[in-house]
Every structure is written in C-alpha cells, then in structure tokens.
Design goal:
The complex is a heterodimer of chains A (262) and B (265).
Chain A lengths: L1 E8 L9 E8 L4 E6 L5 H8 L7 E6 L2 E2 L5 H7 E4 L12 H11 L4 H14 L15 H14 L4 E5 L7 H18 L2 E6 L10 E6 L2 E6 L1 H6 L1 H6 L6 H9 L7 H7 L1
Parallel strand pairs in A: 3-8, 3-9, 6-7, 7-8
Antiparallel strand pairs in A: 1-2, 1-4, 4-5, 9-10
Helix pairs in contact in A: 3-4, 3-5, 4-5, 5-6
Chain B lengths: L15 H4 L2 H14 L6 H17 L4 H7 L1 H17 L5 E4 L4 E3 H27 L2 H12 L9 H31 L9 H32 L18 H19 L3
Antiparallel strand pairs in B: 1-2
Helix pairs in contact in B: 2-6, 2-10, 3-6, 5-6, 7-8, 8-9
Classes of the chains: A alpha/beta (262), B mainly alpha (265).
Protein name (chain B): Energy-coupling factor transporter transmembrane protein EcfT
GO cellular component, one term (chain B): plasma membrane
Organism (chain B): Salinicoccus halodurans
C-alpha cells in the first residue's frame, strides 16, 4: 500500500541524516510494527508520511501513486494518526467533541457525524463516557478516545506513533487490546511505532530501525531470532526473549510456547 | 475561600434556566443590563429584586449559597454604598458630625445603587452558573457571527477560547506537579516576604511556560493532521436549538423592561 523508495531526510539543525536511504513497504491489511531506540528515525518516518516534514529525497508511493505536494491533502485524508501524548492531541472539550473534530474539519454532515462518532466510540468501548471532559479520563481512556477520533475518519491506514509509551501498564493493555480487535474486525492497515519490543508480538510484520536505517525486517519470529541486531540497536530485550535466547535455539511466540519448550 | 468563589463557575443542573438556549440567556442578560437603569424609584427596584430572586429560585440555586460565593464582591458593593452615603448631598441632614454630614439623599441613592449593582452581579453570576463554558463559547460565536463582515476572526477566537478552556485543568495539574517538584528541591512558596514569595514563583512559571509552548506545538500538529484548515468547509457537531420558549423568554424580558419604563417617575 505504501512504498518508501530510497528516502533520505535530515533536519536543518542536525548534521547527520535522520532517515538514511530508507526503502520500505507497508502492505494492505497488515499490522506493521516499526521498532527503534530514541532518535532512530521512526517518528521522522511518520512525519514525512503525514506531510508534516517537507523536503526529503527519494519518493513515497501510495497505492502506486507518487506522493506530491498536490495530492498530499487527499492522501492525508486517508491516513489517521494517534500521537504519544494523550493530553496534547485532545482538541475537543468533551469526548464526543474530540471524536467529531476531524469530521467537522472535513465537512461531514451532522447526521452522519453523529452516527460515526457513536460507532467509533463504541468500537473503543468509550460510549458511556461521551459527555466527559478530558480531565476526568485516565491516560488509557484518552488514547482510546484519540483512536476513536482516528477511526471516525474511516481511514485506510491507522498510524500509532508511540501511542502507548506514556501510559501505565493497565492503559497500555487496554489500548493494545482495542487495537487488536479493530485490526481483526476491520482489517485496517496499521503502522505501529514503538520502542518496546514486548509490544510487537501481535504484528504481522516488523521493522527494526537504528540511526535512520532499517537494520532488520521480517516477521516477528525472524526479528526475535536475530537478537544481535536488536541488542546492537540499543533496544531492551524482553526478559523472556533473552532467556529463550540463552537457553534454547530459536525463539518462541507466547509464554505457553516458552514454558513448553523449556 | 477560593473554592467557594462563584464568579465564572458552572454548576451543572437541569433546571429551566439551565435548559434555555445559551444565546437566549446572553441576550436576556444584556437586555437586563439596560433595563436595570430604567428603575428610578422604589417600586422599580422592588420589581428588579423580585425578578432576580425568582430567577434564582427557578435555577434551583439557594440564596445562601449565592451569598457565600459572592462575599468578596460584597466588599465592592459596601464600598460604593459608603461613597454615596458620604458624598451625595441633598435632602434633610440626618447626621451632622462637623467635618462630615450624612444626608437623606445620600442614603437613598446609596441604597438604589447598591441594589442596581447587586442585581447586575447576581444576574451575570446566574448566567455563568447555569451555562457551561462550552455552550457560552458556542453562543458567543453564533451571536458574533455578523462581525465577520468587518473581518473579525470570530471562528478563530471561539476556537481559541474553547481550547483554552479545555487546557485549564491540564495546566492546573501541571502547575501543581511543578510546585511539588520544586518544593522537593527545597523551594519554599508559603514563607518569607511577599517579594521572596513572588521570586519563588519564577521556577514554577518558567517550566510551565516551556511545557505550554511544547503542548501548543504538538496540539497544532495534531490538529493539522486531523485536517483542520480553519472555518472554511467546516461542519459543526454541536448544534444550538432555539425553541419557542427562548423567544418567549426574550419577549418577557422586553415586556419587563417596558413595565419598568412605564412606572418611572
């Protein structure tokens, strides 16, 4: 669905490339995780895709069509994104206002808007909070509202830029659970940016980044197997993975499998 | 003390006054501000007081509650009363203490002005108490829409207002966090002279400002990727519903004004 061909980008203040000749392919209907340490370029990737950063080298194709300044507004409408900080992306004064914000911007009629807001809130289990103010919600709930806001746009692609990194374990579990459900039911294409290796388990495809380069790519099994690449990219291995790495050949995909093989 | 302050606060409820269209309420309060000045003798003032008291009753608020919340404002009212008492001359001399006199005209004027001021404060407090800040913003935006013709950015101002309102609790939390963090590093906020206490606030405000700017930047990006391009082509999720009872309330207000005007002397 989305193809990065040899994309390079550097920030004006930096003297090295934030993205260094990146070639990637995000496939339709797949959950792709992008893992990397701080400064690995994973957020830059998203910002370029959303058209927030301009002036990169190389080309990005969306459904075979090269992304240009002209078609960017139309392309952007097909993507939705959830950012890291739950507070700083909550625009509306109440839950339902926030979910409706994107729809209002795109001139969706009021009747359809009401339906879509309701449906989106239901799919993240937040319908009963619809009139609540953000200050009365937990971080996990705010992120679920942000996801509802993204879903209400009925996007072809949902991007999550470290959407769980500021949440407590409880909130993180809630959000991941919701995402898994949405992915399964609606077959939405997902790009999941994270620095937590433990979160990529559910994805179909994973990309490991370091210093603006892709250093490993493949299924989650393949990624977990190549522990050297993970360690060299300064990622913290989940305890169970390093355990499995030391004790067994190959990797495991779930706790049960690990226990069994041990 | 501050938690009891009622100025600008909203008390959720479902009374008749709560359910009026916010635009109707704003217009009515505006009309009342003019009407107050029609009264010029005691029957007029009595009517004004009765009107405001019955409105308070309709809003389901108790007078004691209002009185407690407005104690600070009372000071201002008492001050105005005193000014009239001492400086308005005319009528019979009530007290003559040599270097100052209190005359009957002063007492009467003082009482009238006090009532006027008190009623104005009560009715505007009633407005904010019964209308959520959000619907107030909405109403102001709709009422001011004609101003767009003279290039007043009505939509943008309303947007800023609603985002600011939404960020007040967030920034409050943040302030508290910073104060705690600075206290843990040995700052004291509650002791010392006024000057040193003000100085102690600098390390609170600087981090607060920095984070507010960061938030603003992130917020701007989040709004942009969600397709915000200003008012053009935008639809509204919230709708205000003007009903016959709102028209009726305005008409009633105007009638009240006419009555007060008729009984002027």
């Amino acid at each position: 669905m989305i193809e990065f061909n040899d994309v390079t980008y550097s920030y004006r203040t930096g003297n090295h490339n934030a993205l260094d000749h990146i070639s990637l392919n995000f496939r339709q209907g797949e959950w792709t995780s992008v893992i990397g340490h701080n400064g690995s370029g994973k957020s830059t990737l998203v910002k370029i895709l959303m058209g927030v950063l301009e002036g990169y080298e190389g080309e990005i194709k969306v459904d075979g069509e090269v992304m240009t300044e002209e078609n960017l507004p139309d392309i952007r409408k097909r993507f939705a994104i959830v950012f890291q900080n739950p507070d700083n992306q909550f625009v509306g004064a109440t839950v339902e206002d926030d979910v409706a914000f994107g729809l209002e911007n795109n001139g969706v009629g009021r009747d359809e808007m009401v339906n879509r807001v309701e449906e989106a809130l239901r799919s993240v289990n937040m319908l009963e909070y619809r009139t609540h103010e953000p200050s009365r919600l937990s971080g996990g709930q705010k992120q679920r509202v942000a996801i509802a806001g993204a879903l209400a746009m009925q996007p072809d692609l949902l991007i999550l830029d470290e959407a769980t990194s500021m949440l407590d374990p409880q909130g993180r579990r809630e959000v991941l659970e919701i995402l898994r459900e949405i992915h399964r039911e609606k077959l939405t294409t997902l790009i999941y940016i994270t620095h937590d290796l433990a979160e990529i388990g559910v994805s179909d495809h994973a990309v490991v980044m370091k210093d603006g380069r892709v250093i490993n790519e493949g299924t989650v099994e393949e990624i977990y197997q190549d522990t050297d690449a993970l360690v060299s990219s300064r990622l913290v291995l989940p305890f169970t993975i390093s355990l499995a790495d030391r004790l067994l050949d190959g990797c495991y995909m779930s706790y049960d499998e690990l226990v069994e093989r041990l | 003390m501050l938690s009891k302050m009622l100025l600008g606060r909203y008390i959720p409820g479902n009374s008749m006054v709560h359910r009026f269209d916010p635009r109707a309420k704003i217009i009515a309060v505006f009309l009342f501000m003019i009407i107050v000045f029609f009264a010029n003798h005691w029957t007029g003032y009595l009517l004004l007081v009765l009107f405001v008291l019955s409105l308070t009753k309709l809003a389901g608020l108790s007078l004691v509650f209002l009185f407690n919340g407005l104690k600070l404002i009372l000071l201002l009212i008492v001050f105005t009363f005193m000014m009239h008492l001492f400086f308005t001359k005319g009528g019979t001399v009530l007290i003559d203490a040599g270097w100052f006199t209190i005359e009957s005209e002063g007492v009467i004027r003082g009482i009238y002005i006090t009532i006027r001021l008190a009623m104005l404060i009560l009715i505007t407090t009633l407005l904010t108490l019964t209308t959520s800040p959000l619907s107030l913003t909405d109403a102001i935006e709709r009422i001011c829409r004609p101003l767009k013709a003279i290039k007043v950015p009505v939509h943008e101002i309303a947007m800023m207002m609603s985002i600011s309102l939404r960020f007040i609790p967030t920034l409050m939390d943040e302030t508290e966090k910073i104060i705690k963090a600075q206290s843990a590093r040995g700052s004291t906020f509650m002791t010392g002279s006024l000057k040193s206490r003000l100085n102690a606030l600098t390390p609170v405000f600087i981090p607060l400002f920095i984070s507010a700017f960061k938030r603003a930047e992130e917020m701007a990006m989040a709004m942009e990727v969600r397709g915000y391009q200003g008012e053009e082509g935008r639809t509204n999720y919230r709708v205000l519903d003007w009903q016959w009872k709102d028209t009726f309330a305005i008409i009633l207000m105007i009638l009240f004004g006419i009555v007060l005007f008729m009984i002027r002397q």
